[in-house]
Every structure is written in C-alpha cells, then in structure tokens.
Design a protein that fits this description.
The protein is globular, with a radius of gyration of 22 Å. It is mainly alpha-helical. It has 20 helices and 2 strands.
Length: 397
C-alpha cells in the first residue's frame, strides 16, 4: 500500500477520473477491475495493490505517482530498469540486429517518452526505456541518409528520457554514460541545435561532480559554437544554454557571470513564445524560474532576489511539471533561509502536488524538509509524515 491513507488515494483517483470525464464504470472497464473495487477504492475503504494502482493510473493516463505519493512501486521499477538500460547501451557503437519497429513507430514512442520526462513520470520511462533504446540504436545502425539522421535524433531523445531517471535517482555513472551516448548520436544528426541540447544536458555531469567552474567553461564553449539565433528554435537553444550557464555560474559563486548569462537568456526569451524546444522548456516563464534558481545557487545572501520573483509571479500550470516543481523546491529553500518556515512548508507541498516523484528525489527538497522537521520538533504530524515520505527522517518501525 502507498504511504498515503486509503482515503487520500481514493480522493485523488476520483478527482482525476472526473477531470477525464469518466464514470466509475468507464474506469473499471478500462482498468480491467471490478466496479465494486473501484467504488471501494474511491470511498477509501479499500487499498489498491501496486498492480491495481498501476492499472488505474494507466486507464487515467497518468503516472501512479500522481495518485499515490508513496514510492515502493516506483523504486522497484527504477531498480529493475537501471541494469537493463546499462546493458543495452554497453556496446552502443557496435552494429546490431535489425530494428523491430519502424521509424514512424519509434518517433511516436519517443515523443511519448519525452512528454513523460517533462511531466516527471519516471516510472513510465523506466519501464519503456530499455526496449526503446535498443530499437532506436538498431535503427541508427541500419539506417542510411536522412533516415539515419532521424534515427540519431530518436536515440538522443530516448537517451535523455532515460538519463532523467538515472540522474534523479542518483545513478550518476549511468547518467554520464547516457550523456556520452547522446553526444555520440547528436553528432550524427548533423544538426547544431541537437548538439546544443546535449551540451545543456551534459551539465548534469558537472553538477553531480560539483565541478561547477569547469561546467561553466563547457557551457560557454557550447554557447560560442552555437548557430546564430536566426530562428525561433535557434533563439530557444541559445537561450536555454544561457539559462543553464547562469545557474552553474551561481553554484561556482560567480555572481557576475550568472547575471551576464541570465541577462542574455532574458533578452533571447523576448522573441520566443514559451514552449518546448529540442526537449527543453524555454521562454519568458522559464527564464523567471531560472532567476529563482540563480538566486538560490548564489546562496543565502541573495534570498531577496528569489522572494522578489515569487512575490509577483508563480509558474503557470502549462509549464512542464518538473520545471514547476523545481521552482517551488528552490523557493522553499530561499524561504527557509529568510526565516519563513511556514511559507517553505507550503512551497514543498505544492512541489509534491505538482510532481511527486521529482520532489521526492530532489536533494534540496529533502534537506529543507529535514530542517523544517527539526525546527518544529514536537507535533506537526503532517510535516513528520512528509519528512518520512521524502526520506528526511526514518519512519518508526
């Protein structure tokens, strides 16, 4: 049973079902469960098993983590997928057997995996990634001409989705290997914008190693060789690199470089509508979120900058769930530094509501929850339950 109470899980399922304009009978039929079971689960008198919860989530078109914030099933999926992902990319540059799916089929599956990544639905990615990576690599080795470039793009997209799982769950060695695979495939697309997107993702390697100054140099080199921003896509690619450079400059305690890159990102965003470009969200709203990220990266002396953004703005729901969640997690950190623990607690709750899997795997969310728990000490059962869920404190027994 998930960490939430049966009543909470039932309420979430019912609310999601209503949002999908489905009846209980529709849900029971689509999830291959009995109507009596669906009614009992929604009333909170029955607890769904992991298999039942997964069937319900699939019928509703959401990740199980949207319905139950406990993650026993998510962790099981991730731990099963990690060795399978590692195995299928072990010899990525060696020719393989013929692909089992057409490029059209792979394209549709890759688009779906990209959407799962943006929505922080990591268990879905974990289940699909090994077979998808294998088929995309097969296609790349067997395709020629334009088809080969398209297959290379698919490898980049799927590897990036798989990397989200590896990186968020602390498998940094596998993450680094997936990024090397992305860079290898990106060169074969012969598209500098795809290569720019891989430079953006490569920054994870520097974050994981806390090698912030080298990471900033790598991003500035990528910015230097990026194509001139003569199209919306090129504006977005360059702007995303500047956003990323601003954050890692902040982690390197280089406030001047952070401000320079943030200013460039802001300038480029003026001509770009908010959207997803090469798998990365960019636009005016994304830049605002990165203003908070930069302030938090620079440390507690820059809290007022983060709070200033939040005082007049909040991320719209149309933004990817992972990015919204990051905003609330980083804002919570700033609010805690500013002596606003109640506000920090509220921000963490919003982050979990938006993207539970992303929030639970975020180191700063865990650290903030642990600090809030220590500050309150006695009472605050809801905060204690949250801290136990996120792994900030040990649950009793």
């Amino acid at each position: 049973m998930p960490a939430d109470s049966k009543r909470e899980v039932g309420r979430r399922i019912a609310a999601t079902r209503h949002a999908r304009r489905m009846t209980q009978a529709d849900l029971a039929r689509t999830a291959y469960l009995s109507l009596a079971m669906i009614k009992g689960i929604e009333r909170g008198v029955r607890a769904p098993s992991d298999d039942s919860l997964e069937s319900i989530a699939a019928a509703l078109g959401v990740d199980p983590g949207r319905l139950a914030t406990g993650d026993a099933m998510a962790l099981s999926r991730i731990h099963t997928a990690i060795p399978a992902i590692a195995a299928c990319i072990a010899a990525y540059d060696i020719p393989m057997d013929a692909p089992r799916r057409t490029l059209v089929e792979l394209h549709a599956a890759t688009d779906e995996a990209v959407n799962w990544r943006l929505a922080a639905q990591y268990t879905r990615i974990a289940r699909a990634a090994p077979a998808l990576l294998d088929d995309a690599l097969r296609s790349l080795h067997h395709a020629t001409g334009p088809d080969r470039q398209q297959a290379a793009r698919l490898v980049v997209g799927i590897a990036r989705a798989a990397d989200a799982v590896a990186y968020k769950y602390g498998h940094h060695d596998l993450s680094a290997r997936l990024i090397e695979l992305m860079r290898w495939a990106a060169r074969q697309t012969e598209d500098p914008l795809v290569e720019a997107s891989t430079a953006y993702v490569r920054t994870e390697v520097f974050f994981a190693a806390r090698a912030h100054a080298p990471g900033l140099r790598a991003l500035e080199q990528a910015i230097h060789v990026s194509p001139s921003p003569t199209s919306t896509e090129a504006h977005a690619a360059l702007g995303a690199l500047h956003m990323r450079a601003a954050v890692i400059a902040g982690r390197a305690s280089d406030a001047d470089a952070a401000d320079t890159h943030l200013t460039e990102a802001r300038r480029l965003s003026r001509d770009v509508p908010e959207g997803q470009y090469q798998g990365t969200a960019f636009g005016p709203d994304s830049v605002r979120i990165h203003e908070v990220s930069v302030a938090v990266s620079l440390g507690s002396d820059h809290v007022s900058r983060a709070l200033g953004v939040a005082d007049e703005w909040a991320p719209p729901r149309c933004l990817p769930a992972e990015r919204q969640s990051s905003f609330w997690i980083e804002l919570a950190r700033a609010q805690l530094w500013a002596g606003l623990p109640d506000d920090a607690w509220e921000s963490l709750q919003v982050a979990r509501l938006v993207a539970p899997q992303h929030t639970r795997g975020h180191r700063w969310a865990r650290e903030t929850a642990a600090t809030l728990r220590r500050l309150r000490r006695g009472g605050a059962e809801e905060l204690t339950a949250f801290a136990e869920w996120i792994g900030a404190v040990q649950s009793p027994g």
